[in-house]
Each structure stands twice: as structure tokens, then as C-alpha cells.
# Entry
Amino acid sequence: MFHWLLGDKQGLARIFQHFGQMLEDGRHIFDAASNALLGGTDPETIRDDLYATDRRINGVEQKIRRELVVHLAVSERTEFSVCLKLMSLVKDAERIGDYAKNIFDLGVAVPGFNADPAREDLIQVKDQVSRLLAKMRNLHESQDEELARAFCEQGESVLRHCDEKVDSLLRSTDNDSHAVTSALMYRYIKRVMAHSMNIVSSIFMSVDKLDYFDESQETR
# Structure
């Protein structure tokens, strides 16, 4: 879908580079926030960097949308659907930063979470999602549909796992703050994964199917 963006075509290559930076910043902010909750990192040592990265993500989102509006005013109609896709995808990229801030807030609120029995599983799921986030920029540069579908299949397994864990925690008689924190963390990881799948699925899905993974999970 985006192959033609990789050439220098009326500034769209620059827009695509901006989007790639959003994806890299998203992974960075997710890792940093998760380490504040799961890795024992003092939240105050990463607070400034985390919020600065989030502001950069928001700023790039606004820049991309402005540049797309300008481009649409002078571009060929054949490019319209691609620009609409990018308008949607930058919102998904921005939402990854928002959920990372939610995770950071958990790390601030529950400093003793290292003793929770769900921690090891959460670390494994977080690491899996982080590895997938690291692949997103390369996937959008390569536009490899087969690898994009494989990415989404792995993402589906993450969504199912998070749902199962949340359901189990909701049925548990353990109502302490750590159980609540675990359920919230699984939920936030799930949302990060769903938005990532929306981004990658744009490689093989038409514009009318965007947000499929995000919206299809809301009923669960």
C-alpha cells in the first residue's frame, strides 16, 4: 500500500519518516514505563524522558496531519486513500504513548509490585510485545504482507492471553491492590498490542477495515 511513499514524492517520504520515528518512540516509552512497574526502575528517574517522548509523539502526530492536509490539497486523487490511512495510523501510534503513561502511573502507584505472583508472566508478555513493537518500522519500510500477517497472528495470541489473565483475576477472591494492578497491566498491554496490530494490518487491509483489531476486541 505504501511502496510509493518510499520514494521522494512531494514530501510524502518525509511524512513516512516522521511516522517511523513515532513508532520507535512508542516502543521506547512502552519499555520505559513497563520497567517502572515490572523492572524495579525508580519512576522518578525516567519521568522527564517519558513525558518528553510522549510530547514528541503528540507533536509529530500533529505535524503529520498538517502535512497530509497540505499534500491532499495539491495531490492526485489516487493518493487520497493512502493519506486517509496515514491519518488513522498516526492516531494508533499516539495511543501507544497514552497507554504507556497509564502503565507508568501504575508503577508510581504500586511501588511494591515486584512481589506479585503475576509479575513473571507479565514480564514475558511485555517482552514479547516489545519485540513486536521493534519490528513495526521495518515492516512499514518493507511492506511485506506475509510478515505483517505473521505479526498480527502473534498479536492475536497476546490479546487472547491477556483476556484469559484478566478473566482469571476477575474471578479470583484475591482483591488486593496487586491483583487490581495485574489486571490493569494486562489490559494496557492488550491495548498497546491492538493499536500496533492496527498499524501493521494497514499493509494488507483496505482503508475501510482500519481499526479492525482495536474495535473487534472491545466487546470482549
